Amino acid sequence: MFQSRAAARRVQTLRSCKRPSLSRPVLNNREITTYPRRSSAVATAHASGSSIYTDDAQHLHPDDLHTDDLPITSQDANQVAVGWDTRTWSRFHNIWLRDHCRCPKCFHPITKQRLFNTFEIPKDLTPLHVDAKPGGLQVTWPSKEPHVSVYPWSWLQLNSYDPPLNRKQESNEKILWGSKIQQSPPTVAYEEVMNDNNHGLYKWLTNVHKFGFSFVSGVPATTEATEELALRIGFIRETQYGKFWDFTSDLAKGDTAYTTLALGAHTDNTYFTDPCGLQLFHLLSHTHGTGGATLLVDGFYAASLMRELHPSAYRLLSEVPVPAHAAGDAGSLYATGEGYPVLTHTGQGELVQVRWNNDDRSVMRGLSADVVEEWYEAIRLWNKCLTSPDSEYWVQLQPGTAVVVDNHRVLHGRSAFTGKRRMCGAYIGVDEYKSKLAVLREQFSNSSTGQGDGLEEQGGKSSGEKERDVWHPLL
User: Fold this and answer.
1) For residue 41, is it left (φ>0), alpha (ψ between -120 and 50) or beta?
2) CB 3.0 to 4.6 Å from 426: which of 150, 230, 301, 303, for a disulfide?
3) Which residue windows does the record flag with biased composition (Basic and acidic residues) (predicted)?
4) Angle between helices 311-319 and 372-387 in degrees, nearest 10
């Protein structure tokens, strides 16, 4: 909560008694030191350790700010500066601001697509006026008919790039785990997931996001029910194995999954440029035999051990491309050519994908002679991390319990078995999964407060229907 205006003014008065007379900031000076000339609600929020953008507020409501409770703005020929407090400023290039105008003429309010022609922006574009308003930064652009853009304050802070501010790292929501996860594995009931209110579906996918996998209990032991379960997330991705699988160990496909052999911890589709995102399994029956326990390993947890204990090996796993292939069926031949590293990161260094299937690995012809031995030592250490008793979670699946795994994070395998074991399941694309989760977050993440879900009521819409805000944080 912001302090009262009176309290903010008392703080400002004390400051003004001690401060020297300072001019407006010079934008090309990266160390701007100046003080607001008006009390700033944003500065108060910063001083108390809070942010003007939170998950509970899409953007500051104009009623929350008064004329004298606004960030400070300044401009030069190339940039506009916004002062959040006495030490924190964000700078935005004129061309960037003009490109991100989201008035109805520049950004379609329904389709959420850009209408303005970015390539018509003059290189020397300079605003006519820049004003701090309760609704946000108001910029008046020169044109035949002067164009006015308004950018919500919280949207500017969330998208500040010079410098980046308050960037919430998705990785902080990940929960790394080892074998002790067996004490309380993430689970949701089938009836909850299939309920039309979507609460159970949101819980299920949130489990997957945090842990990389989740069980669903009480699933009818039929292919029909299992397929309906998969379709709750998104459309099923068809591959060379078909659309929805229903298979036994009969080598109907040229893959060791269709045998009774043990399978080490691996991710699927290492031979695809875009490996499937989610993989759903459901054991329908296992008769006249034993074995076939399911193995799950958190690849992010294993990678964290590698990074801490063997940083040089971790670097090699992040840099050396590993080629892979799927060639067991005469009618298909998948190969990645040079391949991809075992560990993939964002530009900021965050681990986002694990690709590992030693059985599908092709010839390592791209290795430099001086790193051959180092690379083999790196995968040996990697394998030790994956096969450590601390990393392996073994579970004997039973008919009625399905499991979905994030194929970009969690490796799976199984022990050898005897008898007839019937399994069904499906692949779902990573983009479909992330889209569904994002929509459910809009619906439920702030349901307890009724605030800031990135959706707004629109006239003419039936009760419960909302239109996505043009300032939604993901747009």
Assistant:
1) alpha
2) 230
3) 463-475
4) 110
Per-residue pLDDT, 256: 83
| Cβ 323 vs Cβ 339: under 8 Å | yes
Q: What is the DSSP letter of 172?
A: G
Q: From CA 357, how far away is CA 268, in angstroms rounded?
A: 7
CA distance 206 to 201: 8
- What does the pLDDT read at residue 97? 97
Query: In the predicted model, what is the mean pLDDT of residues 7-14?
Result: 37
- What is the torsional sign of CA 238, 242, 246, 247? negative
Nearest CA to 401 out of 244, 214, 194, 218 is that of 218
Tokens 């702030």 label which residue? 446
Strand arrangement, sheet containing 129-133: 129-133, 136-141, 147-151
> Residue 435, SS3?
helix
Q: Judge whether 406 and 170 are in contact, CB under 8 Å.
A: no
Of 76-90, 148-162, 461-475, the one with minimum mean pLDDT is 461-475
Single out the residue of 269, 266, 249, 267 nearest to residue 258, CA to CA: 249
Q: pLDDT tens-digit profile of 375-424?
A: 999 999 999 999 999 999 999 999 999 999 999 999 999 999 999 999 99
pLDDT at 257: 83
CA distance 464 to 149: 30
| Least confident interval from 217-221, 361-365, 437-441, 467-471 | 467-471
Name the percent of the chain in helix, strand, coil, to the closest 5. Answer: 30, 25, 50
Of 471, 406, 411, nearest to 432 by C-alpha is 406
Q: What is the pLDDT of residue 75?
A: 92
CA distances 61 to 204, 210, 326, 451, 467, Å, are 33, 31, 55, 11, 18
Of 269, 186, 281, nearest to 230 by C-alpha is 281
